[in-house]
Design brief:
By secondary structure, the chain is α/β, with parallel strands linked by helices. The protein has 10 helices and 7 strands. The chain has helices at 13-24, 46-60, 78-100, 121-129, 132-145, 147-169, 193-199, 202-211, 223-233, 252-256, and strands at residues 4-8, 28-33, 39-40, 66-69, 106-110, 181-187, 245-248. A 7-stranded parallel beta sheet has the order 3-2-1-4-5-6-7, sandwiched between helices. Helix 2 (46-60) runs parallel beside helix 3 (78-100). It is globular, with a radius of gyration of 18 Å.
Length: 261
């Protein structure tokens, strides 16, 4: 059966791989990105989020079988908060009525393996309070104070908040009781233009292995690996999985915290 999916971040990386996989399986995909997509919007803005909903409703005819909030940025400051958390949550919450109108609807988001790394407690609290303006300001303050914090902690915190949002909301009446499965995936290092230069050198590969060791298939995975998992989670084959954060990292998370269940 042909299903209609909406995929944010569809022009590159995991989003592009997922859109390609879904289309190859015979499904219809409505792609969303800044450029090169069916819907071209900026999910860091309220206007962009509103435009997404309006155009998605029109293009889908009011019914979506799957929503995959994949768009994200590895930014050192407020863009990470705006896109990675608030943009993704707005995508899911605002398109939920279109999912509820479908048969066997499914949704998924992309977090990161880095959600187990250092995070900023104040930023996390601000994000989870829903105060986007304050969260963005604090993220910019963190970035100004330290390049390392800006590049890692802000990103990890924005994704951690997203994963926690999935865990809290998936079992709710709005999602599970309405028949909508909602899950997150947490990828490790993915082969992309961003990591290509690092992967080309022995020193770079060693650094990646030290930070996120991936004994199974490492040091980096093809985006198609994550696309395959997302495709299954949002398919009709997924009959009982919801509220999960599935690490897809070649074993990195289990090495970091083997006793954690």
């Amino acid at each position: 059966m042909t299903r209609t999916y909406l995929v944010t971040g569809s022009a590159s990386g995991i989003g592009k791989a997922t859109a390609t996989r879904l289309r190859s399986d015979g499904h219809r995909v409505i792609g969303v990105d800044l450029r090169g997509a069916d819907i071209e919007v900026d999910l860091s803005t309220t206007a962009g989020r509103d435009a997404l909903v309006e155009q998605a409703r029109e293009l889908s005819g009011g019914v979506l079988h799957g929503v995959l909030a994949i768009a994200g940025v590895l930014a050192s400051s407020s863009p990470s908060v705006a896109v990675n958390h608030f943009g993704a949550v707005a995508t899911l919450e605002d398109l939920r009525p279109l999912l509820a109108a479908a048969d066997q609807p499914r949704a998924a988001v992309v977090a990161t393996r880095a959600i187990i790394d250092e995070h900023d407690a104040e930023l996390l609290a601000l994000i989870e309070s829903g105060d986007e303006a304050a969260a963005r300001t604090h993220a910019d303050d963190l970035a100004a104070a330290s390049d390392d914090i800006g590049g890692s902690v802000v990103y990890a915190t924005s994704k951690l908040a997203l994963a926690r949002w999935v865990r809290r909301n998936a079992p709710s009446d709005a999602w599970a009781a309405s028949g909508i499965a909602l899950n997150a995936v947490a990828p490790g290092v993915i082969a992309s233009p961003m990591t290509l230069s690092v992967l080309e050198t022995e020193e770079g590969r060693a650094a990646l292995n030290a930070h996120a060791p991936a004994p199974f298939g490492g040091p980096a995975a093809d985006p198609a690996a994550v696309a395959n998992l997302l495709t299954w989670l949002t398919s009709t084959d997924n009959l009982f999985v919801t509220g999960q954060v599935v690490f897809i990292d070649g074993g990195a998370e289990s090495i970091r915290r083997p006793a954690h269940i």
